Amino acid sequence: MTFHTRDNMNDSTSRTRYETRLGRVLDHIYDHLDEPLDIDRLAEIACLSPYHWHRIYQAMYGETVAATVRRLRLHRAAGYLANGTMPIAEIASRSGYSSLQSFSRTFRAIFGVPPAQYRNEGTHRRFRPALSGEKQMTLREVEIRRMEPMAILSVDHVGSYMQIGKAFDALFGWLGKNNLLAAELRMIGVYYDDPGMVDEHALRSKAGVLLPGPLPMSVTVSPPVSIEPVRGGEYAVLRHTGPYSDMRAAYEWLYGTWLVQSGREAADAPVFEEYLNSPKTTAPAKLVTEICLPLR
């Protein structure tokens, strides 16, 4: 029995070592999206053999490092298209594409429409009545829901809300190390600051999960993971289907139109989002997010 216990401990220690090394790779990717993908440099960061490390990465994260970089760059590109006026050619260049045609072809394959059409007709347009024509949002699309208090396992994130995936990756690495990954996990992001009032680099948020049951006694919660309470009570819940890059327009409509016309007031607590599917396995157009605004 002692022999098997020692083996289990060794297995856990080995996995933790790999997760720590590959976690450094993910951090580097998130922080250097504008730079060319350098496999040898990433191998150095991981302190692993350049001949084998990317196979370990794919086995642990379910996608190649090239797929990770492409997904994150396209996710960011969609944000530029939905929320700004940056020329599409510049977006293509910043996303690592040598030609606008190549970028447009890849973007269309992932998002279902070419970049220009996404900018002009994407899901974000329906949240902007002056621009969206007949497909306007209605107040009925918000549900008032009473929720029980929650205690989520979370990792802090400071910076662009579009980059909170970095904290989710760290959190899921910790969950895997502690054998806490389960199909019933609820993924929750808590957002504390208004992007219109706080500089992007200073925005505070938390990437969190709600476990299906109590935390095992054998698991000790320590940094970077903490336990964060989420208040119970009434929430205005807007279900959003589409890319995360469209969320800013959804928030603008929820606060500027629904809340003002509803007769309700927001409570002194942060908004949170619950993600009902994963961006790693779901097409952007089919991502489902519930935006939960606390009410008095």
Automatic annotation (TrEMBL):
Coiled coil (residue ranges): none
InterPro entries, sorted: AraC_E-bd, GyrI-like, Homeodomain-like_sf, HTH_AraC, HTH_AraC-typ_CS, Reg_factor_effector_dom_sf, SmbC-like, Tscrpt_reg_AraC-type_HTH
Keywords in alphabetical order: DNA-binding, Transcription, Transcription regulation
SMART domains tied to this protein: AraC_E_bind (SM00871), HTH_ARAC (SM00342)
Keyword Transcription regulation: yes
One Pfam family hit: GyrI-like
Domain HTH araC/xylS-type, residue spans: 23-121
GO terms, molecular function: DNA-binding transcription factor activity; sequence-specific DNA binding
Claim: Ligase is one of the keywords in the record: no
PANTHER family: TRANSCRIPTIONAL REGULATOR YGIV-RELATED (PTHR40055)
Record protein name field: DNA gyrase inhibitor
Lineage start: Bacteria, Pseudomonadati, Pseudomonadota, Betaproteobacteria, Burkholderiales
